[in-house]
Design brief:
By secondary structure, the protein is of the alpha/beta class. The protein is built from 14 helices and 14 strands. The strands form four sheets. Strands 5-6-4-1-7-8-11 form a seven-stranded mixed β-sheet, with helices on both faces. α5 crosses α6. It is globular. The relative contact order is 0.14.
Length: 423
């Protein structure tokens, strides 16, 4: 099996630990970009600690599919060994009637937030229905010629990562149309982490639906049980689910994803920092979009003189085509070599980086202005509560901010225990 690579390949961006910036020429950019994109994460890797995903245990669910027309909710993370689960199950004689693709599409080549159209998968000839286009929930028509659905998508354990919203929509559609759903569970790479304020319903959006913290500490299968058990599905529907559990897995394990879960989570470092650094999407800062290191670097041109580290965001097809501060030198933090074991040790997301950059900013009045940054959502939608912005502006300490997340966070941790599948 191939070894895992997480390579800091210098392409498209001028990055320098000593703070010296050198702009790449167009010729260098064109030559380096494909190689860098190919090397950031390697597919088809041996899983740590002999973990077997639900999808890999075909003997447990193939009998449930015999003679049935199957719909599959999948994306590039849906792998069994060295092949996609779609290709693997086709070879095993499963009749796959339709493919349903979430944000980024079935093949994962759409940028974040970009709507995806229905299509026919060129490799298999199977109709691919987009759940990130005209509608987010499979329709009765979509499910009319399907007997059973499969959900097989890798999550990263964060409320604003949209695949758990896709799961909810699929469960609601299956419940409404009397279809059984098989969930092929996968480990949560941030499974140890349960932190952040509970989402206030007034900030419910496409990047946050249910009253859970920023980092929820669940696998997809466990979250599905919570959706059913807490009556969170539309009209308090109950979906008939069968969960194929991970084997040899628990939440405390370190787990390196074999395939990048989305275009901008392209390194293990980005995945582990994501619960903390995605908060920068609610600020007037570039957080690595337009580089090969999203969610691991952050900065802005107006921070010149405050930080030595610098880089230049560029347009990257399929990742970030119009990044904030495109072609401008950004100054800020380089977290590519940050020891993520510190996050595991603390069991907390890091909000000190955001506080540090706010305090350093000469443009404090614009720091949380997402009309300027044109990013995915305001800080309230990301954090999930109204007072985080005012707490940072008011100079509250990290300890004081965390105290405001209680008692909701503790109540969630207690409730969560009812739905755990892994000790």
């Amino acid at each position: 099996m191939k070894k895992y690579y997480s390579l800091a390949v210098g392409c498209l961006v001028a990055l320098s630990a000593c703070g010296q910036t050198q702009k790449p020429t167009n010729q260098e950019t064109n030559r380096q970009e494909p190689q860098a994109r190919k090397l950031l994460i390697k597919d088809n890797l041996k899983l740590p600690s002999n973990i077997l995903t639900g999808a890999a245990q075909t003997q447990k669910y193939l009998p449930l599919l015999k003679g049935k027309r199957v719909g599959m909710v999948v994306n590039p993370t849906s792998v069994i060994g060295e092949e996609t689960s779609v290709d693997s199950l086709l070879k095993l004689g499963v009749k796959i009637q339709k493919i349903f693709g979430p944000e980024h599409g079935f093949r994962g080549d759409a940028s974040a937030g970009v709507k995806v159209d229905d299509a026919v998968d060129t490799k298999t000839g199977i109709k691919a229905v987009s759940l990130y286009g005209k509608h987010s929930t499979p329709t009765a028509e979509d499910l009319a010629d399907i007997d059973i659905m499969i959900f097989d998508i890798q999550d990263v354990g964060v409320r604003f990562y949209t695949y758990i919203n896709t799961l909810q929509h699929v469960m609601e559609a299956c419940a409404t149309n009397n279809k059984e759903l098989i969930i092929l569970d996968r480990p949560n790479p941030n499974g140890y982490l349960i932190d952040g304020p509970i989402l206030d319903p007034k900030f419910k959006s496409g990047i946050g639906v249910q009253p859970i913290p920023i980092a929820h500490g669940l696998t997809v299968g466990e979250y599905a049980q919570m959706l059913n058990g807490e009556g969170w599905l539309k009209d308090k529907l109950k979906c008939k689910i069968t969960i194929i559990k991970n084997l040899n897995y628990n939440h405390s394990m370190e787990y390196t994803l074999p395939v990048k879960p989305s275009p901008n989570l392209n390194t293990q470092q980005a995945i582990l920092l994501y619960p903390s650094t995605c908060l920068f999407e609610g600020t007037y800062l570039n957080h690595g979009r337009g580089t090969m290191f999203p969610f691991t670097i952050v900065g802005a041109p107006y921070l010149k003189g405050k930080f030595e580290f610098n880089y230049i965001p560029k347009s990257i097809k399929g990742m970030s085509e119009t990044p904030l501060f495109q072609d401008q030198i950004c100054y800020g933090l380089d977290l590519r070599n940050y020891d993520t074991k510190q996050l595991r040790k603390s069991g907390q997301i890091n909000i000190s980086w955001l506080i540090e950059l706010y305090n350093a900013s000469p443009k404090k009045e614009d720091f949380f202005n997402t009309k300027l940054s044109k990013e995915m959502g305001t800080i309230e939608r990301l954090v999930g509560v109204a007072d985080f912005r005012t707490q940072v502006i008011g100079g509250k300490s990290e300890k004081e901010i965390r105290a405001s997340w209680e008692p909701g966070l503790s109540a969630y941790k207690k409730m969560r225990k009812k739905y755990l599948l892994y000790n």
